[in-house]
Amino acid sequence: MKDLDPRTKIIIVAVLSTLAVVEKRPEVLFIIWMATLALLSAFSISVAGSFKKLRRFITLFASLVLIQSMFSPAGSPIVTLGGVGIITTGGVLTGLSVILRMFIIISSALILSTSSSAEIVYGLVSWKMPYELAFMVFLAVRFLPVLMEEMGDSITAIQLSGADLKRIPMRHRISLYTYIFMPVVTATLLRARQISIAMESRAFGAYPSRTFHRKLIMKPKDWMVAIITLAAGAFVIIW
To answer: Which end of the chain, C or N, has fewer beta carbons within 10 A?
Structure first.
C-alpha cells in the first residue's frame, strides 16, 4: 500500500476525516478508528508508534471528557454536586466522541507520511490546484519541523546553561519562553526571506503553469482503492 499514488492517499485521508466530522455516535466512530488503525498496518505504519504519539495528549483528552460532560449534560448523572449532575452519561459519551474524532484525524494523517512532501505537491497540482498554493503547502510541511527543531535547540541551550525548567515557577517560565520564542521567529523569518529571494531569482510565478520532472499516473490499483474508499465513505454517511 505504500506505493499507492499520493492522490489516492489524499482521498483516503479526506474520507476518514470527513467521516470523523460528520459522524456523532461514539460506537460508529470507534469502528472508523479501528478501520483507520487497520489501514495504518496496511501502510506498514507502526500502530504502537501512533499510540505513543497520542499518549502525550492523555491529559488534554481527559479534560475534554470532563468539559463536554459538564457543558453537555444528558442521560443519567454519574457525579452530582448540590443536586446538579456535574458528570453525566450523555456528557461522557459526547466527550468520548470528541476524543475518537481527534484520534481518527490524527491517525489518518499519518498515511500521508508514507509519501514525500514533493509527491503530495505533485498530486495537488495534478488536480488543477494552482502551483502557488501547492508550493505554499509544501513550504508549510517543510517549515514545521524546522520550527520545532529551532525551538528544541533553544530549550536545550537553556538547559545546558544550568536552568531547570521543571523547577522554575510558572510566571518565570512563561517569561523565559517569550525570550525563546523571539529568536526562533527571527530565525524562521530569515529562512523565509532566503527562500523568497531564491524563488524570485528563478522567476517563480512568472508563468501560469509549470512543468515538473515527475508525472504521476494512477494505476488500476489506485483507482480501485480510491473507488472503494469513496463508496465506503458514502455508505457510512447514508447509513
So the answer is: C
- SS3 readout for 209-233: CCCCCCCCCCCHHHHHHHHHHHHHH
Q: Residue ranges per domain, the chain?
A: 6-114+217-238, 123-201
For 46-81, how does the pLDDT look when each residue is reduced to its tens digit (9 = 90+)? Answer: 777 666 666 666 777 677 767 766 666 666 666 666
> Mean pLDDT throughout 110-127?
80
